[in-house]
Amino acid sequence: MVEQRRQSVWRYIPERAILWKLAERCVDFLVAVGAWGKEVLKTGASVRQLVQAYAATDGFWQTDRQQRLVEQGAAICAEDEEVAGLVAICRQRYTEVVGAAQAIFLRAVEQEEWPSEGILRQTQVFDRYVTPALEERRKVAYFLVDSMRFEMGRDLGGTLDSLGSVKIAAAATVLPTTTTCGMAALMPGADGAFTLAEDGSDVVPTIAGKTLRNSGDRMGLLGENYGDRFREFPIGDLLSMSPRKLQGTVGKADLVVVRTQEIDSLGENLSLYLARKLMTDIIGDVRAATDRLMGLGFEVFVYAADHGHVLLPEVAPGTGVQPPPGEWKTVKRRCLLGSSISTPQGVIVFAAPRLGITGPIREFVVPTGFGSFVAGQSYFHEGLSLQECVVQ
Q1: pTM > 0.85: yes or no
Q2: Which one of 38, 142, 198, 267 has the minimum C-beta count within 10 Å?
Q3: What is the pLDDT of residues 292-315, one digit of tens each?
């Protein structure tokens, strides 16, 4: 039906074109689920096998991508009664398939550890991809994209193909999958030196004993390491500057860090309607910022995320989980860090060292499935899932 209607004169009416575009996206989503539903749901897969299956060129990430595009299309359509049933089917299938895959992933991590051997660690990203280029005196742009999950990184890579050689590598995040921890893990010297430390009543990341509470601390660390070779911009500032002002601000710097928090801000602070509608636009903004820096002679571009996210179509009943009793140093929507007294139904308790967590943390506790310790959440991170923990 979609193929037949592509030539219809009615497709030139904007309202009809939007509806048919949504219908196409729903079909693409159902094809992706059909291709990967049975493959991903194999029992007995290792953590490494699951990450590889998720991140492969034709991997399970495509299901998340198509779901994002369906939700964007549904948000754009003001009158979608004609396809509401089709959208509902897609949402049901997404919840079923990712829920089943999540159960298998958590079971594999319980039996093994996180991250698995053979997977690039987030803490290796800077020293592996940025440092060598800087040592060769090449001009490097390092994009820190808050909450860009792996499938969005795949889409970004597709927009960059025309500019040169593009390599997409899956990386395993540190835990917890918070902005503070994930961004700290992307700093120089993080591998082997990233730890959590107590800071008053909070727990914060450190690298070689240096506390990194926020973006200012992280940019300060880069400034200490690279001096006047380094500049940093929020992406909005970079895109809004005139070419002459941008060139003057960059000066002779050969490391420019571009920061964007838009994806996380949309999910955390605005309505889910606006998040679904606008989230994809960030990919275009990153591409536009890349073009501007290429015009200034930058030649190596590295794009990294602190964590991914889960964007559920709706909040299912029973997804709110009661936190277990214990002494908790950190309480997040999707995880608890500290020591538990008991393990009630609906949660999984991990020994922190088995999840790569170094510091004054004994246990890491997460809800089963895509549950949350805060009821009513449909956009979230901070937990343990392929969508939250596999980034590019």
Answers
A1: yes
A2: 38
A3: 999 999 999 999 999 999 988 766
